[in-house]
Amino acid sequence: MERIYFDNAATTALDKEVLQAMLPYMTTHFGNPSSIYSYGRETRLAIETARKSVAKLLNAHPGEIFFTSCGTESNNTAIAAAVRDLGCKHIISSPIEHHAVLHTVEHYVSGDVSCSFVKLLANGHIDLQDLEEQLSSCEDRCLVTLMHANNEIGNLLDINVVGNLCKKYNAIFHSDCVQTIGHYPLDLRKTPFHFISGSGHKFHGPKGAGILYVNDNIKIQPFILGGSQERNMRAGTENLYGIVGFAKALETAMSDHEKDSSYIQSLKTYMIEQLRKEIKCVSFNGDAEGKSLYTILSASFPKTEKSEMILFNLDINHICASGGSACTSGADQGSHVIRVINNNPNLVTVRFSFSKYNTKEEIDKVVRKLKELI
Ligand code: PLP
C-alpha cells in the first residue's frame, strides 16, 4: 500500500534534480577540495560556486555563508560565538524554540551568563513588548535567539521588528531559520540579522548539509577546530555533494517559490476546512490561519482511549505524521511546545506538514481515516 507522507517539517524527499546535481561529486568528481591538483581544484570550484549561489539567493555576501553539517551545528556555532566572542552575557530566547537552541542555551548558562524567556501571547506568538522591556532593562549585552518559524505550530516571527529591536539595544540577533530557508525569500541585506541557521533536508535537499550566515560586521572564532576549511571557520573535509545539493535545492526552491508556496498553502487551507467539516471537535494550535508557515498544521483532538493511539494508528494505516518535533530520536515525551502553548491533558496533538509532492486526494484519505480513529 502507498504511504502518505505528511511529515515534511521533519524532513523532505530529495528532489530528483538535486540528486542529479550531486551525483558527479559522489562518483567522478571526488577530489578533496583542499588538494592543489586538478581533482581538488574542480571540487573547490564546485563549493565556491555553491556558496556564491546560496549567497545570491539570500542577498548576502559569499563571505557571510559558512557550510556546516546541519541546522543543529549552525545553532550551536552561533550561540557559542555570541557568548564566547561577542561579549553576550544574557540570552533572551523562548520556551518554544527547537531543542537545538534550547539545550545549547542551557549549556552556556553559567555563573556569568544568564538567560530568560520572552512571554508568549495566547496564540503562541512572541510578545514583542515583553522582548523590548527585557532588552531595555538588561545592563549586559544580550543575545536574542528566536526562531523564524516554529517547527511544531508554524507561527512566524516578525524578523524585521525583532532585528530592529536588537539593533536599538545593541543586542546580537540569531534566528533559527531551519523551517523557512527554502520556503520564504529572505533578503539578508535588508533584515538586521547577525546569524541565521538553515538546513538542506527541509527543502528537498540532502541531509547533513546546513549553513550558518554570519554578518560581515561581526568577527567570531571557529566552533570546530582542526583544518583551515571554510576560511578557518569550520574545520573538517567539506561535505562536497551535500554542499552542491544544498545550493541546487535552494535554487530550485526559490525559482519555484511562488507556485509551490501557493499550492502548499492551498493544501493546508483545504485540510483545515475538511477537518472542521468532518471532525467537529478539532482545534488548531498556534496562529494556524494567521501569521503561519504554509507547510505546517498542528491539530488537536479530544483525548479518548481510541484517539490516544492516533499516531500509532495513522502509522499502521501508512500515514506518516508526528506528535510534534521528530528530532528527538523517537523518545515520545510529549511536545514541549504544545505543553507551553496549550497545556491541556485532555487533548492529543498531531502535526501535519506538507510539501509540493502532496495532493488534495491524500488529504481526503487522511481526513477519512482520522474520522475513524478519533
Ligand atoms: N531547528 C528547527 C526549527 C528544526 O525544525 C530542526 C529540525 O527539525 C532543527 C533546528 C535541526 O536541524 P538539523 O536536522 O539540520 O540538525
Describe this structure in words.
The chain has 374 residues and is α/β, with parallel strands linked by helices. Helices cover 39% and strands 14% of the residues. It has 12 helices and 12 strands. A 7-stranded mixed β-sheet has the order 2-8-7-6-5-3-4, sandwiched between helices. Strand 3 (90-93), helix 4 and strand 4 (114-117) form a beta-alpha-beta unit. Helix 1 packs antiparallel against helix 8 and helix 5 runs parallel beside helix 6 (159-168). Mean pLDDT is 96; it is low at 325-331. The structure holds pyridoxal-5'-phosphate. The site of pyridoxal-5'-phosphate has 13 residues, from helix 3. Pyridoxal-5'-phosphate binds at residues 70-72, 98, 100, 147, 151, 176, 178-179, 199, 210, 327.
Helical residue percent band = 25-40%
Q: Which hetero ligands occur in this complex?
A: pyridoxal-5'-phosphate
Strand order in the largest sheet? 2-8-7-6-5-3-4
Number of helices: 12
Radius of gyration using CA atoms only: 21 Å
Strand content: 5-15%
Please tell me the overall pLDDT: 96
In one word, what is the shape? globular
Please give the oligomerization state of what you see: single chain
How far from one another are the termini?
22 Å
The total of beta strands comes to 12
**Which class best fits the helix and strand makeup?**
alpha/beta
Largest sheet, described in full? 7 strands, mixed
Unreliable residue runs: 325-331
Question: What is the string of SSEs from the N terminus onward?
Answer: EHHEHEHEHEHEEEHHHEEHEHEH
